[in-house]
Amino acid sequence: MKAYVFPGQGAQFTGMGKDLYEQSELARSMFAKANDILGFDIQQIMFEGTEEALKQTNVTQPAIFLHSTILAACLGDSFQPDMVAGHSLGEFSALVANKTLSFEDGLRLVAQRAAAMQKACELEPSTMAAILGLEDEVVERVCSEIDGVVVAANYNCPGQLVISGSVAAVEAACAALTEAGAKRALVLQVGGAFHSPLMEPAREELAAAIEATHFATPSCPVYQNVNAQAVTDPGQIKANLVTQLTGAVRWTQIMQNMLADGCSEVIEVGPGKVLQGLFKKVDREIPTASASIAQ
After folding, report:
1. Which of 201, 219, 245, 257 is deepest in the core (most CB within 10 A)?
2. Tens of pLDDT along 282-294?
3. Annotated catalytic, 102?
4. Dihedrals φ, ψ of 63, to 5°?
5. Can you tell me the distance from the alpha carbon of 160 to that of 133, in angstroms, rounded to the nearest whole number?
6. Beta strand 230-231 with 2-6: parallel, antiparallel or unpaired?
7. Quick one: how far is CA 230 from the chain centroid?
8. Distance of alpha carbon 247 from the chain centroid
């Protein structure tokens, strides 16, 4: 069984998607549609913009979404997923890929998500940190003992967990986790405390937009971030997507569940190879590849 997986924020690079634009009329038409929806020339920023421009949340999230969804569309009949999943932002790409969302609705939601998250980040100084070399339970326990808001946010793979919260609480947690035996506790250069309670204002704003959007019955199950389970019911997919902004990304559990459910090949759709590397941390023998269109 083929699992197609979609990367999230952090996978961007200058020039992303340019090959698709040059090779495919379908890609060119989808980029044009995206420019109309977003109200600015996103392909110009993706192809020629600076790294700094690509790091802006209102650009980064639509750019990664576009790269993944346009690539999946350009694969044509060869794109036949048995299961899909996306890391954080990538879940929106996965939901377009399995036909739960239209391309247009998915892009509108991603743009609204980016704007809502940016506003939430400006309300309170907040950040995230990568914790390496500790069991998840130890990280969870230490975070629960810290004054202030700090929670486990991204379960990326065994021994790699990202925490999220207020600047002071994250720094205190990093010190305590280092003392508890973490190999590294590295504060990340991010705009705010994603996947934490500090994203509640963004969750409330996005919830209305998600509720107003049509979600169809998917062509295959999506393994969602908040529960790591295979979901096919459109109403449940909606509810889980709303919860995603303040809930943890349970990617370790998603990979384990996909493999337990018969996944025999992993194909990453979008920029980078991060998700392939994470799968190898769970099953060294699983075949992985990056999706690409024929020259």
Report:
1. 245
2. 999 999 999 998 6
3. no
4. -65, -45
5. 7
6. unpaired
7. 17
8. 13
Residue 52 has what pLDDT? 85
- Cβ partners under 8 Å of residue 151, min gap 6: 143, 163, 164, 165, 195, 196, 197, 248
- Please enumerate in sequence order all residues whose Cβ is within 8 A of that of 66, keeping only pairs 6 or more positions apart, or say none: 17, 30, 31, 34, 42, 46, 107
Between strands 222-223 and 230-231, the pairing is antiparallel
Q: Which pLDDT belongs to residue 295? A: 44
Nearest to 252 by CA among 271, 274, 225, 273: 225
Block residue for tokens 């705009």: 191
pTM above 0.90, yes or no: yes
Which domains, ranges and CATH numbers included, belong to the chain?
2-121+197-290 (3.40.366.10), 126-187 (3.30.70.250)
Calpha distance 24→238 (Å, rounded): 32
**Spatial separation of the C-alpha atoms in residues 167 and 57, rounded to whole Å:** 19
What is residue 270's three-state secondary structure?
Answer: coil
Task: Return d(Cα 294, Cα 49) in angstroms, integer.
Answer: 26
Is the CA virtual torsion 271, 190, 156, 253 positive or negative?
A: negative
Is residue 214 annotated as a catalytic residue, yes or no? no
6 near 95, Cβ under 8 Å?
Answer: no
Distance (Å, rounded) from C-alpha 19 to C-alpha 207?
Answer: 35
- DSSP bridge partners of 223: 230
- CA nearest 225: which of 191, 202, 195? 195
- Which 3 state secondary structure label does DSSP give 210? helix
Residue 254 makes CB contacts below 8 A (sequence gap 6+) with 85, 223, 225, 228
What gap in Å lies between CA 147 and CA 11, rounded to an integer? 32
Point out the catalytic residue in the list 88, 93, 126, 196: 88
- Antiparallel, parallel or unpaired: β 265-268 and 288-290: parallel
